[in-house]
Design brief:
There is one protein chain. With about 280 residues, the chain is an alpha+beta fold. It has one domain (about 5-245): Butyryl-CoA Dehydrogenase, subunit A, domain 3, CATH 1.20.140.150. It contains six helices and eleven strands. It has helices spanning about 5-30, 90-95, 130-160, 170-205, 220-245, 255-275; strands at about 35-40, 40-45, 45-50, 55, 60-65, 65-70, 75-80, 85-90, 120, 125, 210-215. A five-stranded antiparallel beta sheet has the order 8-7-6-1-11. Strands 2-5 form a two-stranded antiparallel sheet. Strands 3-4 form a two-stranded antiparallel sheet. The longest helix has about 35 residues, at about 170-205.
Length: about 280
């Protein structure tokens, strides 16, 4: 195998993983994984439960239309009547002690999806806290795997430029292929959950166009791109290693030996082209 060819392939894989890692990092902090514009007004029956299990009922809470912007770690919710916004992590929302009687939940035609019992200013979130925590853990693990795969590819790429390298080992690339594949897999799992929720809400818009609108999930797009690139890169590296093992001309040679053999081949070709045998030279 020519060293230059191997360097080009390593550089190609390095570019793919760098792009995947950048996209994953953007999605890690970016909003707009799911953007919902809730247009209808809602009423809830709040209750407060004390340590003695005494329930205190308060008047109904009237909630104005809001805009919910979900990210991986936090949510931005804006009231459309006052244009005031709140940015809170899901952990803060889960432990705000904002609880409502689910039996008293009122919405037009009971059209909303699964009840999560996770509220911010009286508006229910589309995911429960356990699902949001799973999304965070899976995505973070997948992104760390992408960093590890990038490290192995970069290490292999740097080794290729050493002049004293006798054989081009493929262990780093084999490990990088497996790690990159699972990186994409773990990243795409939470991305798929958010995307599936958006698809379900868009399907409801056809029957309830005046109740809700779903905007483009830009942050989710970066996560999907990063996960897909990492997964595809793992497959490409594995395919490259497999094809290389079945190539009869792919022989690892030291730089000096490689150049000497090429020089001998070129000299032999030149003698043959003149039509004169080497014994009469």
């Amino acid at each position: 195998m020519h060293r230059l060819t191997e360097q080009r392939w390593a550089g190609f894989f390095w570019i793919l993983l760098t792009t995947a890692l950048v996209c994953q990092l953007i999605a890690f902090v970016a909003p707009a994984w799911l953007k919902i514009f809730i247009k209808f007004e809602q009423e809830y029956q709040p209750f407060i439960q004390s340590s003695t299990d005494n329930i205190t009922t308060t008047p109904r809470l009237h909630v104005r239309p809001v805009n919910q912007d979900y990210s991986l770690w936090y949510m931005i919710q804006c009231r459309l009547d006052t244009w005031s916004c709140k940015t809170l992590s899901y952990y803060q929302i889960a432990f705000m002690d904002e609880v409502y009687n689910r039996n008293e939940f009122k919405d037009p035609d009971n059209w909303f999806l699964d009840r999560t019992n996770l509220f911010l200013d009286g508006v229910e979130l589309r995911f429960d806290y356990s699902t949001l925590s799973e999304n965070q853990a899976e995505y973070t693990f997948g992104m760390l795997l992408c960093m590890l795969a990038w490290y192995f590819v970069n290490r292999h790429k740097r080794r290729l430029v050493k002049k004293n390298l006798d054989r081009l080992g493929q262990k780093c690339m084999a490990v990088a292929a497996v790690v990159a594949f699972f990186s994409g897999l773990f990243v795409l799992i939470p991305v798929g959950r958010f995307g599936n929720m958006g698809d379900q809400l868009r399907a409801l818009i056809r029957d309830n166009p005046s109740y809700i609108a779903v905007h483009k999930p830009i942050g989710l797009g970066f996560g999907a791109a990063g996960g897909t690139l990492a997964l595809a890169t793992g497959l490409f590296i594995a395919l490259r290693i497999t094809l290389r093992s079945h190539c009869p001309d792919c022989v690892d040679l030291p730089p000096e030996q490689h150049h000497d053999e090429l020089a001998l081949k070129e000299t032999g070709n030149q003698v043959d082209n003149t039509g004169e045998p080497n014994s009469h030279a």
